Amino acid sequence: MGDRRLSHGHGLIRSVSVLASLILILLLSLPIFLSTPSSSVSNSARTRGPLPPLPLGLPSVGALAGFSFEDLPPEAELSLTLGRLALTLTSELGLRPPFPLPQELGKEEASKLDPLLRIILRLDRWARERGEPLDLTGFAPLIQVYSPTAMGAVRPRPVPTVMREFFPSTPPPEAGAGGRWSWSWSRGWEGRLAVLIRTSSPMPPGLTTSGVEVITTVGEIEIAWATPDQLRRLAREPEVIYIEPAYRLASEIDKSVPAIGVDLLREEEPPLTGRGVIIGLVDTGIDYEHLDFRFDSDGDGFEESSRILFIWDQTETEAGPAGAVPFGREYTREEIEADLARGFGPEEGLVRTRDEFGHGTHVAGIAAGDGSASGVGYVGVAPEAELIVVKTGFYTSDVLAGVDYIFRRAEELSRPCVVNLSLGGHFGPHDGTSNFDLALEGLLGPGRAIVTSAGNEGDDRVHISGRLTHPGSTAQFTFIPEEETVYLNIWYPGEAEFAVELGAPVSTGELVQVLVAEPGEVVLEETAAGSVSIDNASGGPDPRNGDHQIAILLEGVTPGRPWTIRLRARSGSGRFDGWPGLAEMGEFLEGDGRMTITEPGNARGIITVGAWTTRVEWRSIDGKTYHFRGAGLPGAIAPFSSHGPTRDGRGKPD
What are the residue ranges of CATH 2.60.120.1290 in the chain? Predict the structure, then answer.
């Protein structure tokens, strides 16, 4: 009986397929040629080019009638796109457009979203109008994304445990030849973004009913995974204040000890060497076998004990004990010492984490190395402090979760704790009002401190600024990309209205196209030089600081070819400041190194530290002498050290 019902269902589906195909063939046989004008996302958005023309060749009726659903997975659906009409045939005999168009957000709702998220939602709608899903993996150079096709977050992001349970265990089949017939999954395979959601109260009802996957809560910030549709629902919730994506960050770094006066502290009684204090690091990891973080606890001459209390490897894809950490793998001092006793390393022991880049180990040595490895007195600032280390993929969501984890572990041990963040980026307002900055500041309290690097862009041209004095006044500058995907953010007063004009280059250096985004507009265009997305304060003033932000996303561009940017005052006047999201993305020909403190160094309450030169030449333990070119003169601020002030005028570094 069950088999007959299944066979009958297959017959109905084939009948629907044949009927739909016959109707389409009749329509396409008419001597009518439909033009395909460019489709507008909204009155204030222009999209990337026209829809493709209607195809004249179609699969034969016999081929369609002979199609079988015998091998169709239970949660799968068949998407058939013929010309401009896209149909989806599901195992429940449903017939529907595969990507229904979402309702547009109002201006107040859009103001709760970071401009890059607004661009992504526009592109998502633009893709749905063309009957295709938006591939979020293209945004991985900028933000943290979860790719269904990669069965996890795009590297170097780890796969969260909660998401492994959400997705099916079998990946979807490859698309059919020519793209006409393709498999798609009805649920569970939509890409997701990591976001920082600022709410008026912890875990409001609207957040729990929206369907987002909340990874952890840090004060008034929820760290979560969300689809584009879920972001739209969240923006309509009254408890949601602001949503920003998890932006990428970049890493940043025995005369130093006396130069900062630490040697005097060691002469105190008792000596201040870090005993009883925990130092937390969120970085590239740590070499837990390194002698500088071990000690001989039984006096036998072998350093079998470790000063590392915990390591949370956020990049580990093999989950550890349930509940220990929200994703990745946690390792304890007991596991580390068990491996040290047996002479095991990351390849064969219990602790499988390693520091492939060395940056985290370098930072840990400066902060808490005891000099055991060198044997010549290269001792860190707090050689008796204990360590909690988080190996991260350098996204704001993971860094925030890591700092929260370190403080929680320290609180369980009733110990004071200082967290070091030698990392940063230029995504954000540079005034301490980003969700990332506010969340870190909210973690501070008695017995807690956060120290962050100022940045390494003091001698880079990554900052542009100027002032438009009256309506009609302009300012022009040139950006040279160094990567294929570039994000620029430019800020100007909320009471003013500035238009932005972007000149796209060709190989000869001439301008092939000039794109204009008026105040409040979103422009999405394909040019010969690459894809362009511009959001010129389409949500109005930023609710966090009252300023306007211009977000420019360039994709598929050629490194080295200049782009011209012109700002034009439509009304009002005022100062503007702009940066690429990361210094490695490129520079402005007219740029400077002022106001280059990286996020989160602009946060209030966080101690932001610059760099100054203590030596330019040293003899290493390998017997060789090394010279640091570009370090400046001993006793002077290092040329690469980022400069303040913050965009709201506060003095930084501290």
Answer: 464-592
| Residue 634, C-beta contacts closer than 8 angstroms, at least 6 positions apart | 613, 614, 615, 616
How far, in Å, CA of 196 to CA of 221, rounded?
A: 6
Per-residue b or e along 278-312, where b marks 16 or more CB atoms closer than 10 Å to that residue's CB: bbbbbbbbbbbbbebbbeeeeeeeebebbbbbbbb
Amino acid found at 96: R
Which of 588, 591, 586, 590 shows the shortest CA–CA distance to 482? 586
Please state whether beta strands 181-185 and 145-147 pair in parallel, antiparallel, or not at all (unpaired).
unpaired
Residue 42's CB is within 10 A of a number of other CB atoms, namely 14
Once rounded to an integer, what is the mean pLDDT over residues 416-443? 97
Options 1.10.10.10, 2.60.120.1290, 3.40.1160.10, 3.40.190.10; CATH of 464-592: 2.60.120.1290
**Helical H segments across 294-448, by residue range:** 333-342, 359-368, 396-412, 435-442
Over residues 227-236, the pLDDT tens digits come to 999 999 999 9
- pLDDT tens digits along 63-72: 333 333 333 3
> Which overall architecture, per CATH, does domain 250-453 show?
3-Layer(aba) Sandwich (3.40)
Residue pair 232/210 in contact (Cβ under 8 Å)? The answer is: no
CB 462 within 8 A of CB 426: yes
* pLDDT value of position 638: 84
Alpha-carbon distances, residue 73 vs 228, 235, 300, 643 (angstroms): 26, 35, 63, 58
pLDDT top residue among 550 and 52: 550
> What residues contact residue 447 under an 8 Å CB cut-off, 6+ apart?
410, 415, 416, 417
Whether the per-residue pLDDT at 246 is higher than 90: the answer is: yes
Of the chain, the percentage scoring pLDDT greater than 90 comes to: 53
Burial tier of 392 (Cβ tally within 10 Å: 0-12, 13-18, 19+): buried
Neighbours of 482 (CB within 10 A): 15
Cα distances from 462 to residues 549, 572, 646, in angstroms, run 17, 26, 15
Q: For the segment 42-56, what is each residue's pLDDT rounded down to a tens digit? A: 334 444 443 333 232
Distance between CA atoms of 180 and 437, rounded to whole angstroms?
47
Whole-number average pLDDT of the chain: 78
User: Taking the model in full, what pTM does it have?
Assistant: 0.78
